[in-house]
Amino acid sequence: MCKCGECKVCCTVLPIDEISKPTGIVCQHYCDGCTIHDTKPKVCKDFNCAYLEASDIISVNLRPDKCGVMFFKKNKNIFSGIINKDIGMTAVAKNQIASFNRQGYSVILLSKDEQPHIILAEGHTAPEIYKEYIGLLNGNI
How many domains does the chain have? Predict the structure, then answer.
């Protein structure tokens, strides 16, 4: 099994237009792992959550299906996180957010049907981080 273990959060929460996969539904190509791994869409190939990028050095408790948040680094100032409503944000996830803040990253938490929540690192302001985040989403940064 890959470093993801039993986690399939990204295969559930993210929409994938190329294969008509909506948000919040387990991908039709997931069965104990990706069944179209060799031919999966570029967006899937390019995506790595923060856990997957650092799984060799961090606790399995930070895996998205265990901590309740799928974190991913947006740039040198921002980490984003998608909250898994089925689990909720655990103490481990809250501690990780505090760690990101101490390292100088603001964290933008996203949850279905709710406004983004920004947890600012020291020296950051909400307007500047929000503007930077929107720029990233629009491909302007």
Answer: 1
Phi, psi of 46 (to 5 degrees): -85, -15
pLDDT digits (tens, 9 = 90+) for 24-35: 889 998 888 888
Q: How far apart are CA 8 and CA 127, in angstroms?
A: 33
Q: What is the pLDDT of residues 52-77, one digit of tens each?
A: 888 788 889 999 999 999 999 999 99
b/e 45-77 (16+ beta carbons within 10 angstroms → b)? eeeebbbbeebeeeeeebbbbbbbbbbbbbeeb
For the residues of 78-110, what is the DSSP string, one character each? EEEEEE-TTT---HHHHHHHHHHHHTT-EEEEE
pTM: 0.85
Instruction: Decide: 116 and 128 in contact? Cβ < 8 Å.
Output: no
Alpha-carbon distance 65 to 15, whole Å? 18
Range of the domain at 54: 10-137
**Domain presence at residue 5:** no
